[in-house]
Amino acid sequence: MTTKTDGGPAFPFGQISETTGQPVNGFYDPGMSLRDAMALSVRIPDDYSVKWAEVLIGEQQPHPAEPVGVHIDWWMRVEAAYRYRMADAMLKAREEE
Questions:
Q1: Which pTM does this prediction carry?
Q2: Does residue 2 have a pLDDT over 80?
């Protein structure tokens, strides 16, 4: 999913020198984006249905005869899509305040 903004950095570690643009003391990690951090914190509802999940990712649930791993991968795509959609909604609400 493409967004206009990822909300900027979340949980950066270290400092960047304003004069040299290099890490102070050699340590710096920009962390993850605020969008990624929000997606990790979203709680997935317990009552979402297969039909709801199919609409969310635009893909039908795998046939029951498919291996378990195929079903797990499908549900993980559903969960990721839900989390990022919620994170995008939170970022949008944040911009509107």
A1: 0.69
A2: no
Whole-number Å distance between alpha carbons of 6 and 2: 9
CB 91 within 8 A of CB 5: yes
Could you tell me which of 6, 1, 5, 14 has the C-alpha nearest to residue 32? Answer: 6
pLDDT tens-digit readout, 66-75: 999 999 999 9
3-class SS of residue 9: strand
Contact 34, 9 (CB under 8 A): yes
Q: Which residues, other chains included, contact 97 with Cβ-Cβ below 8 Å and sequence gap of 6+?
A: none
Where are the chain's structural domains? 9-96
Look at residue 65 and tell me whether its pLDDT is greater than 80. yes
Distance CA 13, CA 2 (A): 26
